[in-house]
Design brief:
The protein is mainly α. The chain contains four helices and no strands. It is 59% helix and 0% strand. The mean pLDDT is 87.
Length: 78
């Protein structure tokens, strides 16, 4: 339960802070073929993972899978 509370607080903080980073303005260097997710979404998920002390992209993916639909919506992660 404590982990959920910490994650919820982290999402609240990031929801207000992430727009200041302007991830949507970062140029995407990937080829068109390899773009499954928008770059801004990947950067947001990575930032959430870093703040939650995740050690790799697989752990970040695991974390974002466990977010509630409301948290995902607030962070604009589909």
């Amino acid at each position: 339960m404590e982990l959920f509370r910490m994650t919820r607080r982290l999402v609240g903080l990031l929801r207000k802070s992430l727009p200041l980073l302007h991830f949507e303005k970062v140029k995407d260097p990937r080829r068109e073929q390899g773009r499954r997710w928008p770059l801004a979404t990947l950067l947001t998920a990575t930032m959430v993972g870093i703040c939650a002390c995740r050690k790799g992209l697989s752990e970040v993916e695991e974390l974002t899978d466990k977010l509630t639909p409301t948290m995902r919506q607030e962070l604009r992660i589909p």
